[in-house]
Amino acid sequence: MSGPEPSELLDATLVGQLKREYLLPFNRPPRVNQLGGNLAYAASSLALWGGRAGLVARVNADYPLEWLGRLAGMGFDTSGVSTAESAFDDRFFVAYSDPLTAHFENPPTYFSERGLEFPRELLGYEPNTRRGCSKLDYLADSFRVTDMPRPFLEVSAAHICPMDFISHKIVPSVIKAGMIQSLSMRSASCYMDPLFWEDMRGLLCDLTTFMTTETQALKLFQGRSVDLWEIAQILSGYGPEFVIIHRQDGSAWLYDRVRKKRWIIPAYPARLVDPTHMLDAFDGGFLLNYRKDYDPLEGALCGQISAAVASEGSGPYFLLDTLPVLLQARLDTLRQQVIMA
Fold it and tell me: Average of pLDDT values for 72-79?
């Protein structure tokens, strides 16, 4: 499945998941059986700032070709999107009872409450949050070494979206064989757990930037620390030059291991519509803008703007309707609010 442009013109390689999404935002129209997944939002965020990426993901044989065609039409190289050998559940459901409170279980209840017809495609759905994180077993949609097109390793930057533990363990080792210099990865909830404490050093050693959340970090460090700066310092000691922890208030805490600097970048005030993929949008914005001048603060600022834009609408394509002049104005405003910690 290939895009229209040669891979040598790509700015980055993105590895993640493509989903069929069923989103019920608070007091907003539903998105039923639409293109989604962390990879789609990270890619759209990168495109928001003028970037192009090669996309790597596994999909089912019946995944809509028109969705992949639209991604290719946006300038993404989809030759890294491959069909899994066995089928897996690619559905994702979330409903909001207020702008921030998400519910991932019992979709029939929320469709009924809103007077919406329940989509037959959601019959038998169970959220992935019930699925454990295996240290040994591959899933049908886990990354395989053969999934990465060789040209995708010849770009300068890459990002790994939240996936299963096996995928996060393998992708960095594959990327080491190429020319990629800047590698970021966002943690997956399933392995941010004390049970995986001994595995974290090996997981993070090849990263440039590690992104996680306050909730995930505190769970991993349960019984060890509740100080987020100390947590960031310890994690960075495993290899990453930068660690970014997103707090529940939306702020991003950025730790620079080499320069021993710490910044707090507040959330940009947005008219919240759908917060589902704000962090994935942050990641795409961070990666592209960091690699321009290798300035992590500028990357984090642009990531926060991407997250705000993504939250003001629903769906990955919404980001691309933003005017560049609006991005710059928001960026200038947010830059004045950064706190040196």
Answer: 94
